[in-house]
Amino acid sequence: MKVADMHCDTILKIYQSHLDGHYQGLRENDFQIDRQKLLAGDYLVQNFAIYVDLETAKNPYQTAKEMIACYQEELSLNQDWLRPVTTVAEILDNQQQGFISSMLTMEEGAPLQGEISKLEEFYQAGVRMLTLTWNFKNEIGYPNAIYADEAEQIVTLEQAGLTKAGFGIVERMAELGMIVDVSHGSDQLVKDVLATTKGPFVASHSNGRQVKNHYRNLPDDLIKAIANRGGVIGMNYYEKFLRAADDQTHLLTKLVEHISYLKNVGGIDCVGLGSDFDGIRLNSDLKDASYLPQLALKLSQAGYSDGEIEKVFSKNVLRLYQDVLK
Fold it and tell me: DSSP assignment, residue 226?
């Protein structure tokens, strides 16, 4: 079952390995994603995010450029099995030729510094999806994290969403054919994106708040709104977003529970995958990218048809990419 994964942080791990002097690359590493793990998982396309930590990066713009250079170097070293893409046609062409596809994305909009010219610069560098915020306010908008209590639950309905600059950036993204990603964003930010755009967008790595009450998960009204727009919500594999601390249910079982919940609320067409691999702690239930066939089996055992599993694993994401990317 071919996999289209909307989010991972593997490039950050590789970039950090360079800085630490213990380089590990995409071909082989101790992380959750490398060549053999992707092959074992039957991957069609992996989105690789450029994530800049605002607590440590002195110059987020420059750090993002360095990370893109790291990504480009990895592509050069692995062109015998991995090829970059910006369209669905390229993904399908790579599949026919036996290559896995790689799409460049960005998580945390701060490197743009609120400037449309920098958005266009990153677009020219190949970035095709932008997660507007991480867990800190930036020039684009506000995240849910700043409205959450110590139990990681939303504590106020009085939220800010997109900034004035953020509205302009989202509008320009639509013109460019760049995918808006609202994961991490405040509930109000998602509502602002809905009000500002006409086309589909994604929450690349978020789950259902009714299943696990966590600020990073989406409430029912936003699940429905994203689904009605033709958007896709990528299931995040992080156990804190899937189950309570005292819940020992197998992680794959909880993941199926979230998938089923989103299917019931928004329909099967709104569900995708967004692992957050290499940005989440290791769990032996779902250790790395090679474990995806086990998720397909779990879904089959839960009564999902092959067609439904294909939608969750890749077809829904490819449809959205076809609708948005130019």
Answer: H
Q: What is the mean pLDDT of residues 301-321?
A: 98
Which stretches of the chain are DSSP H helices?
A: 10-20, 35-41, 60-77, 88-97, 116-124, 164-176, 187-196, 220-228, 239-242, 251-266, 292-301, 306-310, 316-324
* Separation in Å, CA 316 to CA 158, 169, 179, 215: 33, 25, 14, 25
Helix (H) or strand (E) run with residue 48 in it: strand 43-51
- Give which of 268, 257, 157, 175 is closest to 208, Cα–Cα: 257
Strands (E), 197-243: 202-203, 232-235
Tell me the CA distances in angstroms from 120 to 127, 159, 177, 178, 181, one per residue in order: 9, 29, 11, 10, 16
Of 98, 89, 200, 209, the residue nearest 144 (C-alpha): 209
> Contact, 187 vs 177, CB < 8 A?
no
What digits encode the pLDDT tens for the residues 166-200? 999 999 999 999 999 999 999 999 999 999 999 99
Q: How far is CA 77 from CA 14, 25, 42, 82, 137, in A?
A: 13, 9, 21, 9, 36
- Exposed e or buried b for every residue in 82-94, given b needs 16+ CB within 10 A? bbbbbbbebbeeb
Q: Examine the pLDDT at 313 and tell me if it is beyond 90.
A: yes
Range 150-175 average pLDDT? 95
Mean residue pLDDT across the chain? 97
What are the pLDDT digits (tens) for 209-236?
999 999 999 999 999 999 999 999 999 9
| pTM for the predicted model, two decimal places | 0.97
Phi and psi at residue 282, to the nearest 5°: -65, 135
